[in-house]
Amino acid sequence: MKVHKPFVLYEDGDHKFVWLGLDESEHEKGILTNQYLVVDGDKGALLDAGGYFVFERVYENVKEFIKPENVVALLFSHQDPDVIGSLNLWLDVAPNATIYASVLWERFLPHLGFEAGGRITDIPDEGMEIKINKDSLNAIPAHFMHSPGNFHYYDPVSKIYFSGDLGAAVFPEGKWYLMVEDFQEHAKYMEPFHRRYLASRKAIDLWLKRVKNLDIKMIVPQHGSIFDGENVKKFIEWVNSLDKVGLDLME
Ligand SMILES: [Fe+2]
Ligand SMILES: [Fe+2]
Predict the structure, then answer these.
(1) Confidence band (pLDDT; 50, 70, 90) for 117?
(2) Ligand number with the minimum distance to the CA of 50
(3) Can you give the residue range of the structural domain that contains 79?
(4) What is the pLDDT of residue 137?
(5) Separation of 31 CA from ligand 1 center, angstroms?
(6) Does a structural domain hold residue 251?
(7) Which ligand lies nearest to the CA atom of residue 222 in the structure?
(8) CA distance from start to end of the chain
(9) Where are the annotated coiled coils located (predicted)?
(10) In total, how many domains does the chain have?
(11) Which protein residues have a CB closer than 5 Å to ligand 2 (ion)?
(12) In this structure, is residue 169 part of a structural domain?
């Protein structure tokens, strides 16, 4: 089982987009997850901080790029345990961080056991711009893909699109790679998840409209591997090819 160091996906001046490493043995505890850090000067935003048991790996790797107290935004795609399980720990080490989450989940999150007072900013259904330092990220609505209150995050500087659970791949034992090379082969590891978890074809159509006019250089999901170059277009076409998902398939 390999331990992978963080990898800088984009760097220009003091703006970086970083994949925060992985220990392949994490799959023994739960589904493998990716975390990403957007560095903007000496400040940063953490995308889907992850579950409780990945905290130490993510924390140590964030420290290679910025001071934890300079994490100013904890951005969440949705409410699942693999997304928010480390939230309490992050609130302790990043006392200046604001939590950004869907207005649907804001009142549920304090059940993790933290004092919400002023620390959560609700993202309205239509999305919002989130200022980090001098740059901003855009919360892009992706409702029912799979959560009812679901956001992706687009970085207009790097043109990297964080897609949360969309694009998730679940690998068989012993298989893992960071960048998608053979798209057709990779699609096999994505299909079962998307057929069952995405809510319906209508959710896909709404999402396709949202991303149609975005200039996307790379799509980085919370599970599985990263799409860049030609694979960005191939991925969006593949999502469009899913004629029936979720409720469409339920009897
Ligand atoms: Fe999820
Ligand atoms: Fe997930």
Answers:
(1) confident
(2) 2
(3) 3-246
(4) 98
(5) 11
(6) no
(7) 2
(8) 40
(9) none
(10) 1
(11) 82, 165, 222
(12) yes
**75: pLDDT strictly greater than 90:** yes
Region 51-55: mean pLDDT is: 98
User: CA 230 to CA 219: how far, in whole Å?
Assistant: 11
Q: What is the mean pLDDT of residues 152-167?
A: 98
**112 is a domain residue:** yes
Q: Given a cut of 80, is residue 193 above it in pLDDT?
A: yes
Residue 36 burial (CB count, 10 A):
25
Any idea which ligand is nearest the CA of 51? Answer: 2
- Dihedral sign computed on CA atoms, order 83, 89, 94, 96: positive
- Write down the pLDDT at residue 2: 94
Residue 86 located in a structural domain: yes
Residue 13 CA to ligand 2 center (angstroms) comes to: 31
> For position 68, which CATH number holds?
3.60.15.10
Q: Is 1 a residue whose pLDDT tops 90?
A: no
Distance 12 CA to ligand 1 centre (A): 31
Q: Of the bound ligands, which one is closest to the alpha carbon of residue 78?
A: 1
Task: Looking at the CA of 105, name the nearest ligand.
Answer: 1
Q: How many CA atoms lie within 13 A of 212 on its CB side?
A: 8
pLDDT above 80 (res 173): yes
Interatomic CA distance for residues 97 and 213, integer angstroms: 31
Q: Which tokens belong to 102?
A: 């869907």
Distances (CA, A) of 114 to 3, 58, 83, 102, 150: 31, 20, 16, 17, 22
